[in-house]
Structures are given as structure tokens and as C-alpha cells.
Write a structure and sequence with these properties.
Blueprint (H helix, E strand, L loop, with lengths): L7 E5 L4 H11 L3 E5 L3 H22 L3 H8 L2 E3 L3 H5 L4 E4 L5 H14 L5 E4 L19 E6 L9 E5 L6 H13 L3 E5 L8 H17 L5 H12 L5 H8 L1 H15 L8 H8 L22 H4 L9 H9 L1
């Protein structure tokens, strides 16, 4: 079987995931192009990528020439056609809404080369919901990154749809390995992949507990971090993903099931309406760029983070 080799990657969507995936491609020796219909989103994405590149240069001790070589692997595209030109793999990373993704994939299908593979970076939507946007759905599959701009973040979930050809999935796995990352494959399509469904169950439960007043988000994160030895907890992770994206994902489950228990909690709506979207807005469940959970004293409830249980109980009584 002829497995396509991926050397050029086109990223459609310069919001949260597009630039992160593009950066990982650049430092792994692949050519990447980035496009977004919003010029300001491209500007912001490229500025973030420059910051990551400066950090990477310092970490690796790269010369200016080596750094410039990495930078040269990224192309800013002002049109979709330019972005997709000669791409071996196109990754759609637009907002987590079926209508938006279908429209994006229809436009991608018209502009892409006939041999280019196409992946949706959706973290909840199976590609079967999107396959009708393509003339050849055999080249479509799911791929889901977490924070690929971090060298230590190795997890990538792949998922095959019933329409996905074997060579497509095998090429996707080969691509992930070429990034120095670890492909985790869901062989049979299910909403939310396999590992991500497990995370979703945790996310849903901790949001319910906090929304209904059973526990404060910071205490839940403390418990998680102490027990599992992680550097942040579930609420910290939701800030990284973006609280608006979290709500979009939860709404996909809610629309699919119609179960009120799957409806995003009011807590999310309130934060989003206040503009508290997480890392990208500077505030979510924590304040950024220096969230409290990075402080060992916070984890131990020392100093200014000592327990205020009496004050909380008094507020609840009133």
C-alpha cells in the first residue's frame, strides 16, 4: 500500500490550535502555511509563534541562522488558495461548530489538490458529520492536538471514520510520529474520541460540582494536582483550551443527546459573557500570564492563599 508522505502542512484557522500545530511542524522540519479569514487573527497567531520560537531558540541554544531556518518554514497566507497550494495535509482548525466546519471543508475541497489529505482538528465532532462536504471523503479523518507548541506535550488523538481509507489513517499516524509525538488511535468512530471522552467525563463532573456550589474550582484543582502530580488541574486545563471552546464542545454533546444534564452550566456562560475566556483573554478561572497554580504556596494554601473557609461559610449563610 502506498502511504502518502507529508512534507507540507496547511493550517486553516489561526485561533487556538492552528498556530500551535504550525509551530510544531516548523520545528520538526516540515513546511507549514497558515490562513484565517480574519487578518487580526493571523497577526496575533504569528506574534505568538515568534514568542514560542524565541523560547525554543533559548532552550536549544540555536544560532540566529538556525532560528531563521525554522522561521522560514512558515508561510503566512492571505488567501485559502495560497495556503493550500502543494499541501500534502490540510488541517481544519476553525471553531467547534458543525455549520462553520462544513462551510470551511467545502471551500477546502474546492481549493485543495486531489491528493491532499484532510483532517479536522475537532475534539468532539466525528468526521462522519462533515464528510458530505468532500467529493472524496476517503481522505478525511479526525486529528486532535492538545498543546503541541510544548515539546513535552506528546499526545495526539487520531480517529477513523467509516469513510476513511486505510492509507489516509496510516499517513496520519506517520505524520504524528514525524513530529516526535505519540499517536493514540480510536479505530471506530465515536463522538469525542476515546481519551478525550474520558477527559470530557471529568470536565463535565467538575463543572457540575463547582456550578452547584459543592466545591470551589481552585480546591478541585489542588486536589487533582496533589493526587496525580500534575502541574495544573481540570479548571486550569479548561483555561488553556479556552472557556468559549469548552462551551462549544459541551453544546455539541447537548445537541446530540438532548439531555439537560449535558447542557453547559451557567458558570461557563457567566464567565464568557464577562470576557473571561481563559489564557487567551488573560483571565478565566485563574489570572494570566502568571496563574496561581504555578505557586507552590498556593497549592499548600499558604500565605495569601490560606483557607478562607469561615468567610465562605458566612457568605453562604447570608
Amino acid at each position: 500500500m502506498d502511504i502518502p508522505q507529508i512534507k507540507r502542512v496547511a493550517l486553516v484557522g489561526a485561533g487556538n490550535q492552528g498556530p500551535k500545530i504550525g509551530f510544531r511542524c516548523m520545528v520538526s522540519g516540515l513546511q507549514a502555511s497558515l490562513y484565517d479569514i480574519r487578518g487580526e487573527a493571523l497577526d496575533k497567531a504569528l506574534a505568538a509563534m515568534e514568542t514560542w520560537l524565541a523560547e525554543y531558540q533559548a532552550q536549544k541554544g540555536l544560532s540566529p541562522e538556525e532560528t531563521e531556518q525554522i522561521r522560514s518554514r512558515l508561510k503566512r497566507s492571505e488567501s485559502l488558495e495560497d495556503c493550500l497550494k502543494d499541501a500534502d495535509l490540510i488541517i481544519e482548525a476553525v471553531p467547534e461548530k458543525v455549520g462553520i466546519k462544513l462551510q470551511a471543508l467545502k471551500e477546502i475541497d474546492r481549493a485543495a489538490g486531489p491528493d491532499a489529505l484532510i483532517a479536522t482538528n475537532s475534539s468532539s465532532l466525528p468526521s462522519s458529520l462533515l464528510k458530505d462536504a468532500l467529493k472524496n471523503p476517503g481522505r478525511l479523518f479526525n486529528i486532535n492536538f492538545s498543546n503541541p507548541q510544548h515539546e513535552h506535550d506528546l499526545l495526539v488523538e487520531l480517529m477513523r471514520g467509516e469513510h476513511t481509507e486505510d492509507r489516509t489513517l496510516l499517513a496520519g499516524e506517520k505524520f504524528v510520529l514525524s513530529l516526535g509525538m505519540v499517536p493514540i488511535v480510536t479505530l471506530k468512530e465515536i463522538m469525542g474520541f476515546s481519551f478525550n471522552r474520558t477527559w470530557r467525563a471529568i470536565k463535565k463532573e467538575v463543572l457540575h460540582l463547582a456550578d452547584q456550589g459543592y466545591i470551589q474550582p481552585h480546591d478541585m484543582d489542588r486536589a487533582w494536582m496533589m493526587d496525580f502530580g500534575t502541574t495544573f488541574g481540570p479548571f486550569g486545563l479548561m483555561d488553556i483550551v479556552g472557556l468559549d471552546t469548552i462551551r462549544d464542545i459541551e453544546n455539541q454533546y447537548y445537541r446530540a443527546s438532548g439531555d439537560e444534564a449535558d447542557k453547559p452550566p451557567a458558570m461557563l456562560d457567566e464567565k464568557i459573557e464577562a470576557g473571561d475566556l481563559g489564557v487567551k483573554s488573560g483571565r478565566g478561572f485563574y489570572s494570566y500570564p502568571d496563574p496561581e497554580y504555578k505557586n507552590e504556596a498556593w497549592l499548600r494554601k499558604q500565605g495569601p492563599w490560606k483557607s478562607d473557609l469561615a468567610a465562605r461559610l458566612n457568605r453562604e449563610e447570608k
